[in-house]
Structures are given as structure tokens and as C-alpha cells.
Amino acid sequence: MKNKKYFLNIGWLYPDLMNTYGDRGNIIALFYRIKKRGIKCNVLKISVSDNPSLINEADILFMGGAQDKQQEIVNKDLLEEKGKYLKDKIEDYTPGLYVCGAYQFLGKYYKAADGKIIKGLGIFDLYTESPGINAKRLIGDIVTQPFLFKSFFVGFENHTGRTYLGKNINPFSKVIRGYGNNDKDKLEGAIYKNSIGTYLHGPILPKNPELADYLIEKALEKKYHKKIHLKKLDDSLEMKAKKFLLKK
Ligand code: GLN
How far apart are the CA of 5 and the centre of ligand 1, in A? Predict the structure, then answer.
């Protein structure tokens, strides 16, 4: 497949601050799977000191998780200017993946463990609240059944925030094992247009390559205004790892 005419720019938001539990593995997986299809790819790192208009250049967006301290710094930056650019991209169907703390930012607000309210971007109809500093962390391996895929997804979650979805957003998955959005409704993550929010670290994309290909296809479709089917890759190792984790 000669795809040199195609080019994808991955916009990696706050790689220096929002990057816990191996989240950078998602960038490695996306880059690898794009290049394997003979498509040109670039990773554009966008952080606090960078010009917000860089966000406009991204064909796929990614932001990982963090702890409350980093979330405060990033949130301030997002609310100043970058958030407007990010909102426009999400509303315009740019595919993106937002993990844990990043997922929480897309909602209306995040009430941190110390009770402080961190205002969100209000793009996703949801809110997140931590029950407090002594609250149980929702931590451990997680298995989900995404509504978009036939396969199970595996990952690792570690958060105190409990996310509750409103009426104008769909959950991404059903929880089979673990906690997910909160410890009550057995739902995990959210999907809005082509943007996915999830609590799955792990990182999610190398463990569940179906999702990486989904984001890549959506990005190509949006950029080149036609359906482009990706050549299948040999994912036998990834699937073996997933099977092993599911058995556990
Ligand atoms: N600080 C958030 C919480 O604990 C996010 C954690 C994360 O991104 N891993 O809910």
C-alpha cells in the first residue's frame, strides 16, 4: 500500500505534565501503526509555553493522565486559551483520546480530593467528584466491553475522581471487571463525536490496538474526505497479551 501521499500529525497535549502510568505508550502505538501503513507521521508536542494555535495542526489529539497537582497547572493553561482551540477541534470531529485526568477536564468540573473545584471545559456532558482525601482509590486491572467493538478491552485504572455522565453523552464501555467511571453504574469512559475519554491507562492503545486503528481511520477520513481502509497488521503478540490478562 503506497500511502506516502497521506500524512498525519499527532498532537500530544502536555507530554511533560499529563503522562502517568505509561500513557506515552499510546503515542508510540499510534506512531508505529501509522508508519506501518506507509503513512507519514509527526508528533507535535504542545505544552504550557506553546502557542495554542498549534492545536489546529493536529489530526489526532492525545492527552494522558496526571495527579491533582499537575492537573491544576494544566487546567489553568487550558482555561486561559488552549481550551477554546481544543473545544473547536473536538466539536469539529477531530479524533482524540483523553485518559483519566484529561478525560475529567473535558467535563463540567472536577472536585479534587481536597475539595477544590477545578472548572472543566464543559465539552463533555459530565462531572467528576472525589469523595475526599480518605476516599478509596479506584485502582487495579480493569476489563471492559466497549459498545463500538466486539472485543473486550483491558487496562489499568487509578483514580479517586468519580465521573457521572449527563444525558448528552454516551458511555464508551460497560465494565466487566473493575470500577470504571465511578463505583456505582458499571460504565466506563465516554464518547462524543470522535473523541473518547477513558480511565484506562495501561497504556490503552498498545493493549487494545483496535482503538488505535479506529482513531487513525477517523483521522484519515476527516482529513482526506474519503474512507481509507487500513491494511491489517500482525497483532498476534498483542492479542496473546490481552488473552493472558483476560484469563487473570
Ligand atoms: N487526579 C485524578 C484522580 O485521581 C486523575 C488521576 C489520573 O489521571 N491517573 O481522579
Answer: 39
